[in-house]
Amino acid sequence: MCSRKRVFTGGNHDALGTTVDMGRPSLVFLVAVLWAAECAVISTKEPLGSESCKDYGQAFERTFSVPGEVALLECQLDMKYILNSTETPYNITWYDERTGSEIMELEQSVILTKKQIWFLNVTMQHHGKYTCVVRTESECCKQAIWLVVNEMTSENCERPQRALQRLSAHVSDDIACPLRRYFQSVDSPSIQWYKNCKLLQDDETFVSNVDRLFIRKVHFNDAGFYTCKMTFRLRGIVLEMSETIECEVQGEHVHVLISDSTLHRIHQETTNESQTDDGYVLVQTLTLSPVLEEDFYLNFTCMVSSSRGNPTGHITLVPSDPDLSLLIGLLLGFVTFLFVAGVLLCTHFKVELALWVRTVFPFLYKTTDGDGRLYDAYIAYPRVLEGSSEKAEMFAMNTLPQVLEGLYGYKLFILGRDGLPGEAVVDVVQDALSRCRRLLLLYTASSLCSPEAQEWAEQQTGLYSALVENSMSIVLLELEEIREPLLLPHSVRLLRQKQGALQAWKRRKRWAFWDRKSVNRMTSLEPSARFWREVRYHMPVRGKAKKTNWFSL
């Protein structure tokens, strides 16, 4: 574009508004030269300083670039502070302070946006100070910004000016590309990372993610110069910009405002930067781990330094009221866990726990000495048809005595083994039952589920009384599975339904405390260890606590 300019030389005015003296050919040539000059990069439309503008001085931040790249200058005047209203229309004009002339937009060279000016191919001649002027109908303000252009002289591809970022060793950390602040101003931005001129690819150490380079398990040899190159489109033109970051690796975080005695627990985190419609937001986090009582009611001060001043903020830690809900919840949960665990233990390991308590704390149980009973258990089994009770008889005469008497010291009465010859069966049974603390009734599917078994039980008068009248503790030992329980004697069936029976046939695991060869010689029935523990559980407890004679006190 070419702008129009009035050159006052006297004489007539042409249709374009230029005054030309037709009698002076030399002046006509001068007008043509000035008209052509209006198509240059910098015009002389309106010299800087020709009007009275409020001067905000030079911006704190400078822009750095190298020849051949793209440079972006952004007017740093905050519109919401310099204008009467955010709805007030305004326009921005850029000037080169070296000449005081306005900068015009040129294709393939300069692009102007609302608050920005883009130099598409920077040269050393672009080095200098540029001023943005903001105008409304009634106000005018300006601020200068430096564009610093230096040659690339390093062999490691780092730029002359570079940002400094620090990483923490032995943890995963990341580097942020400074060019990310331009993402909203361009189209299709993408970032490539380089370290010392070498393009970095995603691997086990480096992972690029939009505008950050993540480094897993930072080592001290990860220090160096990192360059992020942004490729983007601006008005259909593919352009590139680059920034170099000098990366330092340190064993600890950077600490400020903080005494040496607290460095181990109070430190700053990495600054987090984000861009909004109103500008940039920098978040700096101060971490206290752990918080001590001495930290309460202290003023922690954060300070921001910029060209507009040094504002500060204060934070005070105040102890909060104790939250007992979590503690109460944990306590209730723990009590519930103990209750459920106790129920499960008592349900599934009741027998084992009871036997363990009896063994470890025998003084908790009264001794059986002096109770008038001579035997711990009376062993009864039907003796009916030939061969039908052979298994029960072998188990009663051999297996039970060897286990209960041989291993655990119980005293058993077995009819036919302990009675005197010639005594009446009824008298022997009645007398023996009166001297026994338990009744162990052994039966199989064939030995008790028959009419003969009914008659046998009735003939054993004392046994029948014990079953019917429940005059003593009875334990049913079921050596075979009973498929037709209705065939059992009525008294046995009722007792079985009420308290159950110890089923030696149910689990066929080897009994860990018995010699397998000895058992095989006596019987083919091999009850599990669980069965023997249940038998012991129902046997009398042989405690050590003496009975108290209240009449002697």
CATH fold assignment of the domain at 360-538 = Rossmann fold
Structural category is alpha/beta
Strand content: 25-35%
| Silhouette | rod-shaped
Q: Regarding CATH, which class of the domain at 360-538? A: Alpha Beta
Total DSSP helices:
11
From the alpha-carbon coordinates, what is the Rg to the nearest angstrom? 52 Å
Q: Please mark out the parts with pLDDT under 50 across 5 or more consecutive residues, or reply none.
A: 1-46, 252-256, 508-524, 549-553
Q: Under the CATH scheme, which architecture of the domain at 360-538 would be assigned?
A: 3-Layer(aba) Sandwich
Mean pLDDT: 75
What's the total number of strands?
Answer: 30
Relevant CATH superfamily of the domain at 360-538: Toll/interleukin-1 receptor homology (TIR) domain
Helical content, roughly?
A: 10-25%
Compute the separation of the termini in Å.
127 Å
Main β sheet profile? 6 strands, mixed
